[in-house]
Design brief:
The structure holds two protein chains of two kinds. By secondary structure, chain A is mainly α. Chain A is about 70% helix and about 0% strand. Chain B folds into two domains: about 230 residues, 3-Layer(aba) Sandwich (Rossmann fold), CATH 3.40.50; about 230 residues, P-loop containing nucleotide triphosphate hydrolases (Rossmann fold). Classes of the chains: A mainly alpha, B alpha/beta. Bound molecules: adenosine-5'-diphosphate and magnesium ion (MG).
């Protein structure tokens, strides 16, 4: 049991980081649709750079730059050239995915450095809890931090309120003196960097090495989790862990039902949709009417200005 | 001491929205900015509040020239604006709306902010539940929230852009009280409106703007005649009712029952002859819209007979109604009548009778130019529908009515229009009537109903409540009937 929970948390860590990044981006009103391609290209870049240098950390840095650069293209073409974010994001998805396959081809099968395990002293000795939460590596602790910081910034700081205002009603934020497009640009870049880090986590931490199918479909899943998570960091994190759990479960069941080996790996996808539909249902939201404190958590409204261009006049 | 502008200019494409505007306003006064739709009032106010940057010109506050590049600059010097549609964040709480954009440490101290909200709103005589969502507030309460916020930020100049649109009469009275007390406390209050009566009722002084220029400045009171003339550059004379006799019946309803939601119009018999105007009165949602939609063929009556020019249209489709010469103009000009993102020329092509596969754009442009001239629409053939002001959208809709119309169905034909545009709309409609078209229209404006209808049908609670010929009733009786009371 402990071991299963431990592996779910570890397996979900990159998805948590990626979905937090996308939540930040979308909350500011920009859709970075390129996740499928960004994850793949950054997973490849992270692995190759780490392989050359012999150091995992450098790989993460390179991957973050790749993710941030793709995000910067989406943000700047939207803000400066008023291009449609969805169209640009989709084209970048295809481009980045193909580029990853092409550039990474000769590295398939190589083994690179890995992120060292780092059980936290004392905390990891706590029975059960210690094993589940504190016997991991920096990537997993980073995913915890991503959830906590995102939540705190969103709901406890002025910056977070401004961020949400920009995504909800940019004219309103602008009229209150908030620099709408500057914030949108940098939050999109930050979100993209987090997606890049998530990509590297797949090739340097979750599974060692690079192959084309390493992050297959996970970008799309991340986008769906953000939507069903109602753009709330905690609910989005819940979605990411749910998916991680389904993946681990499917993996373990493969031994029990070898006949289903073809079906089980894809089972998490439809199960995920069913689970999220429930969370998305209006009954869920109605609970929020009775508990105002939970309203943010249970609501599932998209930032109203998501995907739009803000022009002053 | 006061606020002054010098030669403010601002253009959008070829439209000169502000064309050299200069005026001066003393502190402690309630100043009206009056002008018809599209005169350039909102543009000027957005420049004063830093939302737009002027092309040229200068703004002085208390003798100092301001450098207004963004709303942040304006807030810093104490200029705050309530936009035409209050710019609140609907899914956020009242409290979050209050603090968003305010200066202070990164870590939000909500209990501190709540105390401030209570203090400032208390001083202004407002009450808020800080945890409610802005979505659940009325437009009037959203305005109060914005006033509270701007006062908290230290506003010395408060701009209200058409604040009475969309609020109830009581809220309007309360708003006016607030505006007066703000001015008495030494603030400069700018009250922007296209409604004459409001400026007359409220303001100490007035600036009239027409086509981007200041055409008149004076201390109140000024007679309405003068203000109307300044606003529109001409005087309106009420036309006498043209006593042309009615022709044969066009629309005939006999014992028609129509159901839609809570509306249940039962056993209605009504006819409207060629050249007759029937007005539909009643509170919003009392069934007028349902009747219009049924006559337009958008809703099938559950029983009874509906005919136009003797053709039975009972189960007929919308297309059949069109073919029978029925034309419907819904209230939602941009939602139901026009297509956003499509130009004037394209609208006219869409509704033209030309059915060829290819479109001759040169001819379409020429035709559009002709209609733009005919209907004095302020726009170009390539202007998208949403860029037009309400009055010009209505003119475009009028231009789109085919020539051979037998029955015109209009929902709130002049809602949101200024006096000039409304008069124009009716001038065109009455021309149609003289050509023998029947007109059925709904309106919330009793004067409009009494002035233009030959017969008035009053709706109450989803059914027809009373019918009056226009000579036999007056505004007072109509007011009672609309409320479901027969004058005793
Ligand atoms: N953002 C904009 N882009 C293009 N044209 C605009 C814009 N804002 C206003 N206009 C045009 O400028 C003129 C003045 O508009 P506005 O200032 O809104 O008038 P008012 O508030 O007096 O009704 C109108 O013709 C309007 O169509
Ligand atoms: Mg305006």
């Amino acid at each position: 049991m402990e071991a299963t929970l431990n592996s779910i948390i570890a397996a979900a860590a990159p998805l948590v980081i990626a979905t937090m990044g996308e939540t930040i981006t979308e909350k500011s009103g920009v859709v970075n649709l390129s996740l499928e391609g960004s994850l793949r290209l950054s997973a490849m870049t992270g692995f190759v750079v780490a392989f050359w240098v012999g150091h995992a950390l450098v790989g993460f840095g390179a991957a973050a730059i790749v993710g941030a650069a793709i995000a910067a293209i989406i943000a700047s073409t939207s803000i400066r050239l008023k291009l449609n974010q969805i169209a640009v994001g989709f084209v970048l998805t295809l481009l980045a995915a193909d580029l990853a396959s092409f550039l990474g081809d000769s590295f398939v099968g190589e083994r690179g450095p890995r992120v060292p395990a780092l059980p936290i002293p004392i905390l990891s000795d706590i029975p059960f809890v210690g094993k589940v939460f504190f016997d991991h590596d920096l990537v997993v602790y980073g995913s915890f931090l991503a959830i906590g910081v995102t939540w705190f910034v969103f709901y406890r700081t002025r910056a977070g309120l401004n961020l949400q205002g920009v995504g909800e009603r940019p004219e309103g934020a602008f009229a209150r003196g908030v620099k709408v497009n500057t914030l949108r640009f940098w939050y999109t870049v930050l979100g993209g960097a987090m997606v890049g880090i998530a990509g590297a986590a797949y090739s340097l931490d979750v599974k060692l090495g690079w192959r084309e199918t390493l992050t297959l479909n996970l970008g799309w899943i991340a986008l769906a989790i953000v939507i069903f998570g109602g753009w709330h960091p905690l609910r989005v994190a819940f979605g990411a862990y749910l998916f991680g759990a389904l993946q681990v479960l499917a993996f373990q069941l493969q031994d029990v039902f070898p006949g289903l080996a073809q079906v089980l790996p894809i089972a998490p996808f439809p199960l995920m949709i069913i689970a999220l539909v429930f969370v998305y249902s209006s009954g869920f939201r109605r609970i929020g009417d009775h508990f105002p404190r939970l309203r943010n958590l249970l609501g599932s409204e998209a930032p109203a200005a998501m995907g739009t261009v803000f022009e002053r006049e | 001491m006061g606020l002054a502008t010098h030669d403010i200019r601002k253009h959008f494409g070829t439209i000169r929205a502000n064309d050299g505007i200069s005026f001066t306003i003393e502190s402690g006064s309630l100043h009206g900015i009056l002008g018809e739709n599209g005169a350039g009032k909102s543009t000027l106010m957005k420049i004063l509040s830093g939302f737009y940057e002027a092309d040229s010109g200068e703004v002085d506050l208390d003798g100092e020239t301001l450098d207004l590049r963004s709303p942040a600059d304006a807030i810093k010097v104490g200029i705050g604006m309530l936009h035409q549609d209050p710019l609140v964040f609907l899914p956020f709480t009242v409290l979050d709306n209050f603090v968003l954009g305010s200066p202070g440490p990164q870590r939000l101290d909500r209990s501190d902010a709540r105390a401030e909200l209570e203090r400032v709103s208390g001083e202004l005589g407002f009450r808020f539940d800080s945890e409610r969502l802005a979505r659940d507030l009325t437009v009037g309460e959203r305005q109060q929230l914005e006033i509270t916020r701007l006062m908290w930020l230290g506003a010395k100049v408060l701009i209200f852009d058409e604040p009475t649109t969309g609020i109830s009469a009581t809220q309007r009275d309360q708003l006016f009280l607030t505006l007066r007390s703000l001015a008495e406390n030494g603030l400069i209050v700018l009250f922007v409106s296209h409604k004459l009566e409001e400026v007359e009722e409220l303001c100490d002084s007035v600036t009239v703007i027409r086509q981007g220029k200041v055409v008149f400045e004076a201390a109140m009171p000024i007679t309405s005649e003068v203000l109307v003339e300044k606003m529109f550059g001409k005087v309106f004379v009420e036309e006498d009712r043209d006593p042309a006799p009615f022709g044969a019946p066009v629309l005939e309803l006999s014992r028609v029952t129509i159901e839609e939601g809570t509306t249940h119009i039962e056993d209605l018999s009504l006819s409207c002859a060629a050249g007759e105007v029937v007005g539909l009165a009643g509170l919003e949602g009392s069934g007028q819209r349902t009747l219009l939609r049924a006559c337009a063929g958008l809703l099938a009556p559950s029983s009874g007979l509906l005919s136009v020019d003797g053709n039975n249209l009972n189960k007929a489709s919308y297309r059949d109604h069109l073919a029978a010469g029925v034309h419907y103009l819904p209230a939602g000009r941009l939602e139901e009548g026009l297509v956003e993102g499509i130009s004037i020329a394209e609208h006219l092509v869409l509704t033209s009778e030309d059915t060829g596969f290819f479109i001759n754009w040169d001819a379409a442009d020429e035709a559009a130019r002709q209609e733009i001239d005919d209907y004095s629409i302020k726009g170009r053939p390539s202007s998208p529908a949403e860029a037009l002001s309400g009055g010009n959208q209505q003119r475009l809709l009028l231009a789109m009515i085919p020539d051979e119309v037998r029955l015109l169905l209009l929902e709130h034909p002049t809602r949101g229009l200024d006096v000039g545009s409304a008069a124009y709309v009716w001038q065109r409609l009455l021309e149609r009537r003289s050509d023998g078209t029947s007109i059925v229209f709904s309106s919330a404006d009793l004067d409009e109903l009494l002035r233009y209808s030959d017969r008035i049908v009053v709706f109450f609670a989803g059914d027809v409540f009373a019918m009056r010929n226009v000579g036999e009733t007056d505004g007072e009786e109509l007011g009672h009937l609309i409320g479901g009371k027969v004058r005793g």
